[in-house]
Amino acid sequence: PVNPCCSFPCQNRGVCLNGREPGTYTCDCENLPFYGKHCETPYFWTRVALWFKPSPETLHQLLVSENLKWLWNIVNNVRFLHDWMIRRVYLTRAEILDTPPLYETMHAYPTIAATTNHSVYARCLPPVPLDCPTPMGVKGKEKLPDVDLLLKTFFTREKFRPDPQGSSVLMTFFAQHFTHMFFKTAYKDNPGSTWSGHGVDMTSIYGSNVTDEHRLRSFKDGKLKLQILNNEEFPMYSKDAPVYMTYPSAVPQESRFALGHPFFGLLPGLFLFQTIWMREHNRVCDILREDHPDWDDERLFQTGKLITLGQTIKIVVEDYVQHLASYYVYVAFKPEVLFGYPFQYSNKIVVEFNHLYHWHPLMPDSFNISGNIVEMKDYIFRSDLVVKHGTAAMTDSLSRQRAGHMSHHNHGAVTMHVLRDTILQGREMRFQSFNNYRARFNLKPYASFEELTGEKKMAAELERLYGDVDAVEMYVGMLLEKRRKRALFGSTIVDMGAPFSVKGLLANPLCSPLYWRPSTFGGERGFDIVKSATLKKLFCNNIKGKCPLVSFRVPE
Ligand code: MNH
What we know:
Elements (H helix, E strand, L loop, with lengths): L14 E4 L6 E4 L5 E2 L5 E2 L1 H9 L3 H8 L5 H9 L1 H16 L8 E2 L8 H4 L5 E2 L23 H9 L13 H11 L23 H4 L3 H7 L10 E3 L2 E3 L33 H24 L5 H29 L25 H6 L9 E4 L2 E4 L8 H6 L1 H10 L15 H13 L5 H7 L8 H5 L3 H10 L7 H7 L10 H16 L17 H8 L3 H6 L16
Antiparallel strand pairs: 1-2, 3-4, 5-6, 7-8, 9-10
Helix pairs in contact: 3-4, 4-20, 6-15, 7-10, 10-11, 11-21
């Protein structure tokens, strides 16, 4: 008989366990707020709570509703209401995830390695068992569609389509620079292996290990080593700071810099963020030294790093997440609202979150630098462009150029191969279906292809290729899913991404009660720098002369 767990019978985070007799199984619902053969029945108080709980779709509509602006304005301005709201957001998002994680990428069942082995990603749903009739369990065809046919049919960009939310290219580079701090797949090993530190650890600026960190440091006054080029401070050339970097051999010396991540020479936008953050670290060290003339280089360096880490989280929450969510409620970074509530300060990077964050359609095909159009092929591995045009002009230009829509038919030529690898890696790891992931995140699985895409043409193609809407692959579904009005993402990316994102930011040790106080940051002044950080200040404090436009949204 067919392995009964192949049809994923257990609901609400129940676990399917095969019985002694072939074809038998049980759902383990222990410690869940549900019971029954398939963990389908809520206990009384759970049922009551569910009546009052708005669906993720309703909640989203409320938060972006023009008509409720007045209400959100009150919430934003009444301290206890706002704290309550923010706490609810943090807690309800985080509780959707397994803490500690149950699964990792090397096994199909719970292991202790899910928590202890840092060289594997955690996993949100276990893989489709190997002995199932189809790659998605029991639904769909025996073979998944040819990957190149998928790329051709649904993903290849014909004409650039901009993000209707108005995101700037500066936002996309922020996203890439920030997330590469913890999305670090050890591709040479296998797609489930990682060299991540599993959280916001600032390795993208200071290097991935202590050896590289030492190469980036000046060992004077806590500062990082910088050099003057074209009257501005920039990171050192690779030849002068032999940090491990992966430049193709054709890249000339003047574009080879020593950066926090081996790939950050890839795009000038990443080089820009690296440069600005390194300057910020040094600026912070000067301030710390004023208050602590007795501190040695090491203490200034380590404390400076804690401050830039705090600033990073603050900016990610209040500038970046606020922009992406576009809620009328002010998305605030207030670690203190969680004190005394059940919240665990630990995090592990989950492989499905990594896949979800493959936002390559954001990339345009060319870049406008102060009116000059530079094609992608002339932009890649050209850190020297930032030196030539200057950080001000670069920041201004990136703030004014629109990013692409994260949607179908919008992958530019240079990222097609990444998309191809992503789909294949999802298959290799036997990811469950898009609809199973929706169910896992309390979203209603789509009942038809047309409901999924919101149109007919792609729906028909999808049906021909997959056969069953319950057999669509996770990444494919996330990109082809219909978009809400004027939205960059579909509901799955938002409601699946938000929990990982909230957890990754708020469960940082820095947000815990004993870290989150002035002494951690060298006193009130350092603590204030963290609590008042903004994207704009980050750039304006570190660019000489008139401050350029610094924005995640392009001006109207
Ligand atoms: Mn991108 C991985 C190229 C922009 C998010 N990206 C990769 C890989 C390549 C790559 C190559 C490695 C994939 C593989 O070997 O299978 N990425 C690009 C290029 C551009 C780019 C050429 C722009 C041009 N990438 C972006 C942007 C984002 C992004 C913008 C999103 C914010 N990329 C990712 C993530 C990974 C990745 C996430 C996975 C990284 C990892 O797990 O190590």
